């Protein structure tokens, strides 16, 4: 049986504002992505996920959508989108879109109608409640980004509306069948255009118990979005899955299920009839430490195996500091110390060899650190600007962003952009960019790495060791998270296929040790 494409694919997340700009306004656009497809094909990724490009007032940089079926003029037009999709497909690259089902912009015509009167046709498309006595919000839920109630009182109708995120992002009421039908129509609109699937934003939040019960006091300070876990959502997901499966070509959905509990997250795969994939965010919030990662590998297998669920792995995205930044900061260690790059390289080996679908975030293949964003350039209400800095394409001062006289990019560049940019790293076979490319090529050529079983091996405490097996194809992976050399004895002689810190010359023999911050992919000799 052939496995669906999304099990063996490597997905590359594009944050369009910061990827590549063609019109000189300092904000990336769809044409920018299209012009760089050759580079992504050279790198060897299988699929792209685009963060939202829909019409939006940009209160949350596109996650507040005022028209789900239009491209924001900042990014281009529907024609540009069709052109991008066709060119990506011509290169054999799939394309998935971000779908934001939990909320709209407060400027969306649906919400404009909803807030206009208590008997407005779309009143019930959103979640409206009376305040409690004393003017208190209807429940104790806490919004993301700021520790504020998830409720904003609207004087026009003297009721409050629910928003798990910004007040500019009112939550839809999926309990209303008209909302469900309208959001299915949005999926169909893009499926009919040919997209290969969706990354579904906070999709675990869409089903809501109409009584909206308080969060328990012991967790009541946490954003409600990381706690929300309602049975109703599973019914909604099954119907979404039926819709996706009614299209030819293995259309898929990966859910952003932001529950920091792998067993609860795993329930969103249903019995193979809900999400195709779900992000696993625990590792994103973990240190670079072998014991922790062995636990993630083992627990992920346990949680998903009995459901036939397929794991996902992610180290960075547009919501958290980049992993090279997170893995630095050891006492007295500056963020750009040599070890931080070595760790980022070792982490790339882990990300691209663990069993499951890896998601790369644009720029991690360059080893980027977060940008240092001075207070007068902060734009995100969630404090996430650092990881959203523009991609440096070249060594010159503008790094590929417009011509002299054009607008400055919307955020400052990351550190070291004179050397840590696409052109410079492409010219240097020892760069981390070339390491990612080698790993992607080895992965593509190995059934074991793409789809094989995974077994943890015994190794010294600071070394993560596992074996991937598919028939005769066997790959052993050793990842040293420490600054010391460790011996790891294997069953028989092995060849080094990829070393995180070296340019591959002739494949060398494994010497029985893994060096400081080094990761190795090995095959039996
Ligand atoms: O993020 C959801 C989310 O809950 C976190 O990533 C969030 O940053 C964290 O909880 C802060 O409290 C998704 C998108 O990825 C993010 O960019 C959007 O801002 C958010 O949904 C709202 O659409």
Please provide a written account of the structure.
By secondary structure, the protein is of the alpha/beta class. It folds into three domains: 5-103 and 176-440, Glycosidases (TIM Barrel, Alpha-Beta Barrel); 109-162, Oligo-1,6-glucosidase, domain 2, CATH 3.90.400.10; 452-524, Sandwich (Immunoglobulin-like), CATH 2.60.40. The protein has 14 helices and 20 strands. The chain has helices at 5-8, 30-35, 37-43, 78-90, 109-114, 177-193, 231-245, 262-266, 290-305, 323-326, 338-353, 422-426, 432-444, 447-451; strands spanning 11-14, 47-50, 54-55, 67-71, 94-99, 128-129, 151-154, 159-162, 197-200, 252-255, 277-278, 312-314, 357-361, 453-456, 463-470, 473-480, 486-487, 494-499, 513-514, 519-524. An eight-stranded parallel β-sheet has the order 11-10-9-5-2-1-13-12. A five-stranded antiparallel β-sheet has the order 14-15-16-20-18. Strand 9 (197-200), helix 7 and strand 10 (252-255) form a beta-alpha-beta unit. Helix 6 packs parallel to helix 7 and helix 11 packs parallel to helix 13 (432-444). The longest helix is centred in the middle third of the chain and has 17 residues, at 177-193. The model has no long low-confidence stretch (mean pLDDT 96). It binds 1-O-alpha-D-glucopyranosyl-D-fructose. 1-O-alpha-D-glucopyranosyl-D-fructose is lined by residues 60, 63, 100, 144-145, 165, 201-202, 223, 225-226, 256, 258, 318-319, 382.
In short:
Helix content is 25%, strand content 16%. The chain is α/β, with parallel strands linked by helices and 525 residues long. It has three domains: 5-103 and 176-440, TIM Barrel, CATH 3.20.20.80; 109-162, Oligo-1,6-glucosidase, domain 2 (Alpha-Beta Complex); 452-524, Golgi alpha-mannosidase II (Immunoglobulin-like, Sandwich), CATH 2.60.40.1180.
């Amino acid at each position: 049986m052939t496995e669906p494409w999304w099990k063996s694919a490597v997905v590359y997340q594009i944050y369009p504002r910061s990827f590549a700009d063609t019109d000189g306004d300092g904000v990336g656009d769809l044409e920018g992505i299209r012009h760089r497809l050759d580079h992504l094909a050279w790198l060897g990724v299988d699929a792209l996920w685009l963060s939202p490009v829909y019409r939006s007032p940009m209160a949350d940089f596109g996650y507040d959508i005022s028209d789900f079926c239009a491209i924001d003029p900042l990014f281009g037009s529907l024609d540009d989108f069709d052109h991008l999709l066709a060119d990506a497909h011509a290169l054999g690259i799939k394309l998935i879109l971000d779908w934001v089902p939990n909320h709209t912009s407060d400027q969306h015509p649906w919400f404009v109608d909803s807030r206009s009167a208590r008997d407005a046709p779309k009143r019930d498309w959103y979640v409206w409640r009376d305040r409690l006595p004393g003017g208190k919000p209807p429940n104790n839920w806490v919004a993301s980004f700021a520790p504020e109630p998830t409720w904003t009182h609207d004087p026009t109708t003297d009721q409050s509306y629910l928003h798990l995120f910004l007040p500019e992002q009112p939550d839809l009421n999926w309990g209303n069948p008209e909302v469900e039908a309208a959001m299915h129509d949005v999926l169909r609109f893009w499926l009919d255009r040919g997209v290969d699937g969706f990354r579904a934003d906070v999709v675990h939040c869409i089903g809501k118990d109409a009584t909206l019960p308080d969060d328990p006091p012991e967790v009541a300070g946490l954003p409600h979005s990381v706690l929300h876990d309602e049975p109703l959502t599973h019914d909604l997901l099954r119907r979404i899955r039926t819709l996706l499966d009614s299209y030819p070509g293995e259309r898929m959905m990966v859910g952003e299920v932001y529950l920091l509990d792998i067993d609860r997250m795993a329930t969103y795969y249903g019995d193979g009839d809900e999400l195709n994939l779900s992000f696993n965010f625990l590792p994103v919030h973990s240190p670079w430490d072998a014991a922790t990662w062995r636990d993630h590998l083992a627990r992920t297998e346990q949680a998903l195996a009995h459901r036939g669920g397929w794991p996902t792995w992610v180290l960075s995205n547009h919501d958290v500091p980049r992993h090279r930044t997170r893995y630095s900061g050891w006492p007295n260690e500056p963020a750009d110390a040599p070890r931080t790059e070595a760790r980022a390289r070792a982490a790339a080996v882990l990300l691209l060899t663990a069993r499951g679908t890896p998601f790369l975030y644009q720029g991690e293949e360059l080893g980027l650190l977060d940008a240092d964003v001075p207070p007068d350039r902060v734009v995100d209400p969630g404090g996430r600007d650092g990881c959203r800095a523009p991609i440096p394409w070249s060594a010159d001062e503008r790094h590929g962003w417009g011509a002299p006289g054009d607008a400055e990019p919307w955020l400052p560049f990351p550190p070291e952009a004179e050397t840590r940019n696409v052109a410079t790293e492409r010219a240097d076979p020892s760069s981390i960019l070339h390491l990612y490319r080698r790993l992607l090529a080895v992965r593509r050529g190995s059934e074991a790495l793409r789809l094989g079983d995974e077994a943890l091996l015994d190794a010294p405490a600071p070394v993560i060791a596992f074996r991937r097996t598919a028939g005769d194809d066997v790959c052993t992976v050793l990842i040293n998270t420490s600054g010391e050399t460790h011996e790891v004895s294997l069953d028989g002689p092995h060849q080094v296929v990829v070393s995180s810190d070296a340019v591959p010359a002739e494949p060398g023999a494994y010497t029985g040790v893994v060096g400081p911050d080094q990761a190795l992919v090995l095959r039996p000799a």
